[in-house]
Amino acid sequence: MRDSTPVLVGISQVLQRVEDFREAKEPLELMIDAVRQAAEDTGVGGVLDKASSIRVIKGIWGYKNPALAIAERLSCGRVETGLSEIGGNHVQMVLNQSALDVQSGKRDLVILCGAECGRTLGKAQRAGLDPEWLEGRDDDPTPAPDVEYGTAEWTRHQAEMERGMQRPVQYYAIFENALRYQRRESVAEHLERISQLCAGFSAVARKNPNAWIRREVTAEEIRTFSPSNRPIAFPYPKLMNANMRVDMGSALILTSLSVARSLGIAAAKMVFPASGTDAYDHFFVSERDNLHSSPAIRIAGRRALELAEVETGDLDYVDLYSCFPSAVQVSANELGLSQQRPLSVTGGSTFGGGPVNNSVMHAIARTAELLRTTPGGRGLVTANGGMLTKHSFGVYTREQPEHEFRHQNLQAEVDRAPKRELVEDYAGEAEIESYTVMFGGAVAAPTTSYSSVYSNLTSSGDEPSIAHLACRVADGRRTWANIEDPQVLASMCSEEFCGRSVRIDGRGQAEVVSAL
């Protein structure tokens, strides 16, 4: 038994459902509550005294160094402070690094935490107010974090933003329609299939005590438009979108086996990270070879399983990152997982809850909770940031692995994947590779502010407003264009338009010139 083996010993999830936003706790308070509860979850005292690092997952808030504030409030003493960049991959990525730090002896005990208050933010903004925690102070004297994790590099190409493409739902809906065309499904067949997929996530959420929506929702409800389930981006109604209007926080405590034993933590509390991997797909969607696959998920995800010496059939629990149905399907396809098995332990970002960049911490906490009751159990958690861009993977086991924690970055191999050339302001004929139709919202001006992109989390109104098209020109290059003709927009939501020819005017406006 290796004393340096990293082990999860404390987990927590906190949910806040306060109706009056003026009485609600802000994200920092939820993080403090989560860390305190994770320490209590270990079953012993003195855990926080052993902390050598607190690492926070950045959210849609303006705190400069929340880890320092948490350490001070919980009397942790002098600890290393860390803060990730924006991106749903960073929870697993930071945990991978933390496991390496513990295993090497660099850190004795690491606390990971994060929280979002999207529900409270929405209520405040509807009242015409922005909470003080939303934006940081320019004169904040707090020292910067000791360590920052990840990259803040923007994941939208300027050519995409010039056509109004910047919200995640636009990209993931385009991936979705590309998947449908690749499978040769009709629009109706495809909608029924993905609504069944989402209904499976709702069934999981019903059994998850920390899910945000525990009322089980049927596939028919999910695919049917209603005042509470309005269309957002074809083919996605609201119940196929990540639910970011949630107040949720979570924390994980990771230490070595020797420290866990010295503290007297029971073996029943221990869950082991067995392996982890990281890799990015080509950063801009415009450069990817196709819109229905992910070389990074295929290469890095399968490698994580190999490093853990685990087959897909051995997995008791799987949580695939689920901001939108297309992300789930691409991951399942690349990893060789049946879409008939449960692919989430939380209920996904719609029903389990989608606290922006911290949803994966809830997935890890729930996976650990389930593994504690599953002798010999094994679980896989996947994480995704950007536009199906940044990926991280973790394999967890109930028993201590026979090998040390294994980690690998697969970027060099992923970078060898084919890359497509982009042509801007193209004039001439092209073929629609994929598309989406947006409902109710005007085209926003290009921005590189994450808080601006996420401040309008859903569109309003039920009428189609614009279609965004990814097109291939004759020489294989990709270009982007829009359609605004109301009759064509309506047809695009009931008929297959992938594979049709369009004529683009050089300013990004397209006209359909052929049927399938």
Task: Give a written overview of the molecule.
It is a single chain. The chain has helices spanning 27-41, 66-73, 90-104, 118-126, 158-162, 168-183, 187-206, 219-223, 257-263, 295-308, 325-335, 348-352, 359-371, 411-414, 450-455, 486-492, and strands spanning 6-15, 53-56, 80-84, 109-117, 147-149, 231-233, 236-237, 247-256, 272-280, 317-319, 378-385, 390-397, 406-409, 427-439, 464-472, 478-483, 501-505, 510-512. It has 516 residues and is α/β, with parallel strands linked by helices. Strand 11 (378-385) and strand 12 (390-397) form a beta hairpin. The longest helix has 20 residues, at 187-206. The termini are far apart. Residues 447-460 have low confidence and may be disordered.
What's the arrangement of secondary structure elements?
Blueprint: E1 6-15, H1 27-41, E2 53-56, H2 66-73, E3 80-84, H3 90-104, E4 109-117, H4 118-126, E5 147-149, H5 158-162, H6 168-183, H7 187-206, H8 219-223, E6 231-233, E7 236-237, E8 247-256, H9 257-263, E9 272-280, H10 295-308, E10 317-319, H11 325-335, H12 348-352, H13 359-371, E11 378-385, E12 390-397, E13 406-409, H14 411-414, E14 427-439, H15 450-455, E15 464-472, E16 478-483, H16 486-492, E17 501-505, E18 510-512
Helix pairs in contact: 1-2, 6-11, 10-11
